Amino acid sequence: MDYVSIFRGLLGLTIITALAFLFSNNKKKINWRLVGTGIILQFVFAFIVLKTEVGRGIFSYCSKFFVWLFSFASDGAQFVFGGLAKSAGVEGSLGFFFAFQVLPTIIFFACVMSVLYYLGIMQRIVQGIAYVMLRLLGTSGAESLDVAANTFIGQTEAPLVIRPYLSTLTGSELFTIMTSGMAHIAGGVLAAYMQMLGIAYAKATGMTVDASQVYFAGHLLAASI
Q1: 175-210 pLDDT, tens digit each
Q2: Which of 40, 54, 87, 110 is the most buried (most CB within 10 A)?
Q3: Is 123 exposed, middle or buried (0-12, 13-18, 19+ CB in 10 A)?
Q4: DSSP class of residue 102?
């Protein structure tokens, strides 16, 4: 067990919590039950993901699913652009080109999300996550819905989900929306990171590009959630 890393993590968590308390403009109204529950849930989630076979299995499956999904974007880009869209190191590749290898994936994911929203599927998923957060943490419905949406569509689009309520949010709720947006990774950005980091890691370690992308997808998914 790496006790130095554990100590570093605990120290960082303590310092961030202390700074948040120090700069709070209304210390008397801090909901310490919410703070404690949030910290405990972080530890529980980390334990499930890092120390249990079930947690690792779930994220491994999710990682492979995203790599499989984004492979359609790669195949489509290669059909249109040929060798320009092939990952560096792959036979027939002309090198790494962001415009031909990463942007098509972002556009593809944006289209998939649009279709899911049109069908009403994403609304149900986001509302389900928001409901769980509302029950576990006791946060307001608007901020819970925004945080849940951040997991999928990022900080720019997520506030639009609660647009009718933005003018009535408290300062605390607005700050929650801002920090959750910075803490999450949008689906399109996840796809871009998978492409870029996966290729670089594959070159450095000798892994296949697909295996490297699965590796990074799992880490990025856990970090975002």
Answers
A1: 888 888 787 777 667 767 776 666 666 666 666 666
A2: 87
A3: middle
A4: T
Question: Cα angle vertex 48, ends 131, 1, to 5°?
Answer: 145
Give the DSSP letter of residue 31.
-
Domain boundaries, the chain: 55-225
The DSSP call for residue 28 is G
pLDDT at site 15: 92
At 213, the amino acid letter reads: Q
CB 112, CB 118: distance < 8 Å: no
Tell me how far apart the alpha carbons of residues 211 and 219 are, in angstroms, rounded to a whole number.
13
Full-prediction pTM beyond 0.70? no
Distance CA 122, CA 120 (A): 6
Length of the chain (residues)? 225
Long-range CB contacts (within 8 A, 24+) of 76-80: 76/104, 76/108, 77/101, 77/104, 77/105
82: left (phi over 0), alpha (psi -120 to 50) or beta: left
Closest CA to 98 of 85, 107, 89: 85
| Side chain identity, residue 38 | G
